[in-house]
Amino acid sequence: MLAILRILTLAISLILTSLASILMCIVRPFHRDNVYFPANIVGSLSPVIGVELDIRRPKEVEDLGSVVYVCNHQNSYDIFTVSKSLPKGTVSIGKKSLKWIPFFGQMYWFTGNILIDRANRSKAHNTIASAAQKIREKNISVWLFPEGTRSYGRGLLPFKTGAFHTAAQAGVPIVPVCVSNSHDLVDLNRWNNGKMIIEFLPPIHIHDTSKEGIRHIANNTHELMLAKINELSEEAGNPFQTLHNSQQAEQS
Questions:
Q1: pLDDT tens-digit profile of 26-73?
Q2: Alpha-carbon Rg of the chain, whole angstroms?
């Protein structure tokens, strides 16, 4: 019964937030904070699934201006947890198919998030250039999941380099965002599902924009985030054994 009540609460809240966000976009189209509004509301639903959030964003990061955020992506509950940490003036990049999810997909599109066709390599490259241009012209930040998919308990998957190319083309730093392990954390029939820690790390500036330089930065960022995610997971009381290491990232 508890699980059913939670699912209904989440579904109704998501629909209402989506509709309100679409209306907001009609009133103030193309506003740089249109994504922040629904992300903050949906992320505030973490208590509904019994999860306590601890978001750590140092002042050093808050004062940076435009950046490219790279965050680990674990499961479908990320929308009700990680979304809470999305800073103002930030849009995300998601797969094109999200647009067809009723209510949520239309909200995701109308609020200004960037949709990418991962099946089309040339269009994906064009999206990188378009995102970099928007960062420069609109003074916004972009949020990306460099693994390219949810990890579902497989640890931190190897990174794709799109986020790093975007940052290099826009001339902005990378800011890693590390989320403690949430695999098997949520049981909808359990009142208390523990704690998740989300921590923003210091910026990483890209000086070598060659293909090899970008891959090197991506691999180093992967190693840095992997160590921090393990540390945060231990602190949150939900450690995991990662199946991927930096050597696998370098081979990708």
A1: 999 989 999 999 999 999 999 999 999 999 999 888 888 999 999 999
A2: 18
Q: Report the relative pairing of strands 141-144 and 52-56 from DSSP bridges.
A: unpaired
Where do we find the tokens 């960037």?
114
> Rounded to whole angstroms, how far apart are CA atoms 170 and 181?
31
Separation between Cα atoms, residue 103 and residue 216, nearest integer Å: 40
* Of 110, 174, 111, the residue nearest 142 (C-alpha): 174
Q: pTM (2 decimals)?
A: 0.90
Beta-ladder partners of 115: 94
Distance of alpha carbon 80 from the chain centroid: 12
> What is the rounded CA–CA span in Å between residue 76 and residue 60?
30
| Residue 146 structure tokens | 């460099």
Sign, CA torsion 47/3/103/13: negative
Helix runs in the chain, H state only: 2-27, 36-43, 59-62, 104-110, 121-138, 162-170, 211-236, 246-251
What's the angle, vertex CA 101, arms to CA 124 and CA 106, rounded to 5? 80
| Dihedral (CA of 106, 109, 111, 113) sign | positive
Alpha-carbon span 201 to 178, nearest angstrom: 8
Which residues, including other chains, have CB under 8 Å from residue 1's CB and lie 6 or more apart?
Answer: none
